[in-house]
Design goal:
CATH superfamily of the largest domain: Rhodopsin 7-helix transmembrane proteins
Strand order of the largest sheet: 5-4-6-7-8-11-12-13
Shape: rod-shaped
CATH architecture of the largest domain: Up-down Bundle
Number of helices: 19
Strand content: 5-15%
Structural class: alpha/beta
Length: about 775
């Protein structure tokens, strides 16, 4: 069976669309709406149109008669609701997938500052309304939105010149390299014409350094009036097209066409306009140069006039014709099962009505000649994908589309967008380097974006990352902090591992302090040995010899306790460090206090009738030492039981270091230990100061007074110094305070006695000491 067809042109005009649709339905010899008497013309379905406005103008009429309309144009997503037009079918995928492809393409190449061109009609308005929110959501801005007039006629050149002047600003913005164009073939013609009128001599167009992105609705065609225009301006453009497959058989068919069977209908008009010739007419003489020779070949035409492949919209029309054929075949098969065929063995299509196709259309499914599956989704639109093509132009007004990617919503592993960047040929002005289309230069790593007041978010200043933060990528909205164990490098574009810091024996500080502590420990041991050797001499026996030994041992332990502060802090060293320091120092100060109290009580006991004689002896001094030391031991025990010190890492005090230290556990308990030790020292100073002038040949009070003054000065200055330092220097301050205060006690109390014992032994007797005092 053969299917006849009629072809009508809408002329991109709504009024003409309604008229031609009515002509198709009712016109015989004259136009009478809603009246039809031509029984030989049985309208089964209508294919068209390309633009959404044209398609829906047609649908307004065709829907009333339930005539299937198979449109081959793309439409904005909100126009894809087919429930309002039950007779409307789409031979193209949902345009929402094309929007995904546009956004993915822009993000892939980093184009964030783009210009938008759309026709000044309902479809263009919908395109802008749908695309701009998606651009904003993905960090892309529209530098401008330019409406392209659709009703401008080429005979009104003054009007087109005015439009060209008004469109001058978008074209001259150097930062906007990427243009997105939405529309139909007329949009491209008008846009190219406006650019030509802006620069008729084509001086600027040769260096028109722009990248064009065209949607699937657009197409590159030239009318007879625009043959002088070329498409060199669009060299390297990227187009989204309806997915298609090349059919070699169809190309062979086109190559076989010759003028002998094209001299009728629209073939004759097309042939004459395409090749610029006229078929011979016996009644009218003509120049032989104007006559069609018959040797013309469609292969020789530029693609802007005729394409030899079924691509884009042509492929959709091809599928639409076969959809109608398969539906008619399905109807034929269903009827042949229900009743026997006529004697001719053929089903009379005149008995089929257009509305009957709707029962079969939604479920139709077949493989076309290219082997691709053709079927509708539940929204009565064709499933499939969009191809991404790269446009290569030639001086003869021809061009070539090279497939460089695709957008496939049904691709496995969610790879909806695929682009082969190495296959793209960019505009020659880009020197085959990927174009850059941003509002301003990228913020390099180490900087962050700062929004410009009154500008879109794609336009920003770059500010250096604040202290302690970095940015590792271009155009970061905010800088980020390094991990706790790392710190920013000099350029603030990367992190460097922090070095581990603690007071070790390998560094000069640790060597110096440990050597000093060892020296004082040896010196204290030497003093102890000296006092033991000369234990029976008057100067050793004076002022309670046992307290002297206890004080020297306590000072030795003080010097040795400083070694707990040097080296890598461990669990045991942290647990013993501060409590041991507090207890041994309290023991030393308690011995000093006991010595001064003993001197005072002994002097008071010499007065006649004094009741203090019963306190004279070792019991008093032992009681003072034990009681005072016991209080500090209780404080330290409570500290260890409630909040014991533990090893810790301080990653924030010093930027470039991770400080390995002992966490005090309870700062309050630490200062209680220091406070109690200070209280003992003040008490010793007060008692010693009061007893410094007592008439006793062996009175140590004046030496103890000076030693306590030195001791209190050291520890009073220790607190602010300790709080103002960080890391190992804090530990060094505490060690220095321990050594200096202990050395002060050792020097002030025992240096005079050692001088007499070692250097002036003749003075170490009772008579000499009494004589010197007198």
């Amino acid at each position: 069976m053969s299917l006849g067809f009629h072809i009508y042109d809408s002329y991109y005009d709504a009024r003409m669309t309604y008229r031609t649709t009515l002509d198709l339905l009712f016109k015989l010899w004259k136009f009478i709406p809603n009246y039809k008497c031509d029984t030989r013309k049985n309208l089964i379905a209508i294919i068209g149109g390309l633009g959404s406005d044209t398609s829906f103008h047609m649908a307004d009429t065709l829907g009333l008669f339930k005539i299937p309309q198979l449109s081959y144009g793309s439409f904005p997503p909100e126009e894809s609701d087919t429930t309002q037009s039950p007779s409307f079918y789409r031979m193209v995928p949902n345009e929402a997938h094309q929007y995904i492809g546009i956004i993915s393409l822009l993000k892939h190449f980093g184009w964030t500052w783009v210009g938008l061109f759309a026709p000044n009609d309902y479809s263009g308005e919908n395109f802008i309304k749908n695309l701009e929110p998606l651009l904003s959501e993905n960090g892309i801005c529209s530098a401008f939105t330019q409406r392209i007039p659709q009703q401008i006629r080429l005979d009104h050149l003054d009007e087109m010149c005015d439009v060209a002047i008004n469109m001058n600003v978008p074209f001259t913005e150097k930062e906007v390299t990427t243009f997105i164009v939405y529309g139909d073939p007329l949009t491209i013609i008008v846009l190219r014409g406006i650019i030509f009128l802006r620069d008729p001599s084509n001086r600027e167009n040769t260096g028109f350094k722009k990248l064009w992105i065209f949607t699937a609705q657009t197409d590159f065609i030239l009318t007879e009036l625009c043959r002088f225009l070329d498409f060199q301006l669009f060299q390297g453009a990227i187009s989204f097209t309806i997915h298609s497959q090349n059919l070699l058989v169809f190309k062979e068919f086109l190559q076989s066409i010759n003028p002998s069977w094209t001299q009728r209908g629209f073939f004759k008009v097309f042939w004459e306009q395409a090749f610029g010739c006229i078929f011979p007419n016996a009644s009218a003489p003509m120049d032989t140069n104007e006559v069609c020779t018959g040797k013309e070949s469609l292969d020789s035409l530029p693609r802007s006039l005729f394409e030899m492949e079924l691509a884009g919209h042509s492929y959709s029309i091809y599928n639409a014709v076969y959809v109608v054929a398969h539906v008619l075949n399905a109807i034929y098969l269903s009827r042949s099962k229900q009743r026997p065929m006529k004697s001719s063995g053929r089903l009379k299509l005149q008995n089929i009505r257009a509305w009957q196709l709707h029962h079969f259309l939604p479920a139709i499914s077949f493989n076309n000649s290219a082997g691709e599956r053709v079927s509708f989704t539940n929204k009565r639109e064709m499933g499939g994908k969009f191809d991404i093509t790269n446009m290569l132009t030639f001086p003869n007004k021809s061009f070539l589309r090279v497939k460089v990617g695709w957008v496939d919503p049904f691709a496995p592993d969610r790879k909806e967008f695929t682009i082969h960047e190495d296959m793209i040929m960019w505009n020659n002005d880009f020197n085959q380097v990927v174009p850059i289309s941003v509002c301003n230069d990228h913020c390099r790593p180490g900087y962050r974006k700062k929004r410009k007041e009154g500008k879109k978010f794609c336009c920003y200043d770059c500010t250096l990352c604040p202290e302690g933060k970095i940015s590792e990528k271009n155009d970061m909205d905010d800088c980020v902090r390094c991990p706790a164990d790392q710190y920013p490098n000099k350029n603030k574009n990367g992190c460097i591992p922090k070095r581990i810091s603690f007071l070790s024996y390998d560094e000069s500080f640790g060597i110096g302090l440990s050597s000093l502590a060892l020296s004082f420990s040896l010196l204290t041991t030497l003093v102890i040995g000296t006092f033991i050797k000369y234990k029976d001499t008057p100067i050793v026996k004076a002022n309670n010899r046992d307290l002297t030994y206890a004080l020297l041992i306590a000072l030795l332990l003080c010097f040795l306790s400083s070694f707990l502060f040097i080296g890598h802090p461990g669990k045991v060293t942290c647990l013993l460090r501060q409590p041991m320091f507090g207890i041994v120092f309290s023991l030393a100060v308690s011995c000093v206090l006991a010595k001064t109290v003993t001197v005072v009580v002994a002097f008071m006991a010499t007065k006649p009738g004094s009741s203090m004689r019963k306190w004279v002896g070792k019991n008093l001094s032992n009681s003072v030492v034990l009681s005072c030391s016991l209080v500090q031991a209780i404080i330290c025990t409570g500290w260890l039981m409630t909040s014991p010190p533990f090893p810790d890492q301080d990653m924030f005090s010093v930027m470039e270091e991770t400080i390995v230290q002992c966490n005090e556990g309870s700062v309050t308990m630490f200062y209680c230990v220091l406070g109690y030790m200070g209280l003992l020292a003040i008490a010793s100073f007060i008692v010693a100061f009061a007893a410094r002038k007592l008439p006793d040949s062996f009175n140590e009070a004046k030496f103890i007074t000076f030693s306590m003054l030195l001791f209190c000065s050291v520890w009073l200055s220790f607190v602010p110094t300790y709080l103002s330092t960080k890391g190992k220097f804090m530990v060094a301050v505490e060690i220095f305070s321990i050594l200096s205060s202990s050395a002060g006690l050792l020097g002030c109390i025992f240096a005079p006695k050692c001088y007499i014992i070692v250097l002036r032994p003749e003075l170490n007797n009772r008579e000499q000491l009494i004589r010197r005092k007198m």
